[in-house]
Amino acid sequence: MDLYHSRYPCERRAQPAWMFLWFFAKIWQAGSALDRWRKRARGAPTAVPRDQRGNITAGGTGKTPVTIELLHEFRDSAPGILTRGHGRSTSEIVLLNDGEQLPIAMTGDEAQLYMRLAHVPIGIAAERYEAGSRLLAAAPVRLFFSMTGSSICSFGVISIWF
Known about the structure:
The protein is α/β, with parallel strands linked by helices. Helices cover 42% and strands 15% of the residues. It has helices spanning 2-7, 16-42, 63-73, 104-107, 109-117, 128-138; strands at 50-54, 79-83, 94-96, 122-124, 143-147, 158-161. A six-stranded mixed beta sheet has the order 3-4-2-5-1-6, sandwiched between helices. The radius of gyration is 22 Å and the shape is elongated.
């Protein structure tokens, strides 16, 4: 027992950088809390349930193929897709009904996969709540699927992380 206590002290003196890093950690914590509060404040519940896929990493983890398979499985529930349209050159809200084709510059690459493989209504916009509201008015959608983890606090969702 004496050997253990002689080589491994119970307490370690604070390092000089500890207070410096602790201060910035508290600033980060306060900023994150403010961001979550703002997202909750601007959010509103949707009229239909929404399933949201996310992951810590941005790409290459299989979220899109899983979502396409779920869209096929939930075909009888009248699903729709909400996406930001990563890679597109426009910022307007784009709505696609089943079977419509638009160039990749207007939709982004992920929406092209959904257009070709899933054949469901698609809403493409930076603000997915607005796209969802417009898509509900334009198509008979009873369930939304979304592909991001960044807006979990914006409105009631069923979140699936993998």
